[in-house]
Amino acid sequence: MKAVIFDFFGTLTDPSAESGRRATFEATATALGVPPDAFYSAMSETFDERATGRFGDTRATLQAMALRCGVSPTEATLDRAVTAQLAGAAEVRRPRPGVLDVLAALRTRGFRLGLLSDCSSELAESWPTTPYAPFLDAAVFSWQEGYRKPDRRLYATAAARLGVPPESCWYVGDGGSREHGGAAAAGMRPILVTNANYPAAASYRDDPDPHVPDLVVDEVAAILTVVCQDHACP
To answer: Hey, which end of the chain has fewer CB within 10 Å, N or C?
Structure first.
């Protein structure tokens, strides 16, 4: 095994941060001049389209959401709304405690590291400035690729960008979007992170995965022991 590919939300990020997403949407709605409840519904109902790039970038997406809510925003209003939306997105992607140390330790042990995320435009647009980017050798975003997990093409793309075959990759995730079944079908070896220390986390996951991997841990840090069993870790 030569590489470790991570899910993003609820795996690398702090699972408890997701509880603040609605408040960040309300801030964007206020900046956009639309009713918060209507904006939240529009964003929730269009996640699949947003996560596969069908609305375009963040600015175009917010314009489309405003029109759905019966508002035609000015350019200045869109400027404010984009600023609010990107700030809110940064809040809900704060790192899980200790996770950057885990990434650093895996790199020290010689692993190639990748990311595979079902995400909308905000993460892809902001990725280079996030604290995660320096630790990861490749990142694959559904928003850029045009399809979501468990599509095998995403896993194949992640492995190819790392320069290793899928069979040489671990896949680590919290189980949303049927990601582990997709990883196994692609030839990767999945590890489930249960987030047992975050009781509310399961309620935030979209499309839970019926495939339960053989390898299950409660915390991301526990994968260091797991992956080093099959790797000549220093």
So the answer is: C
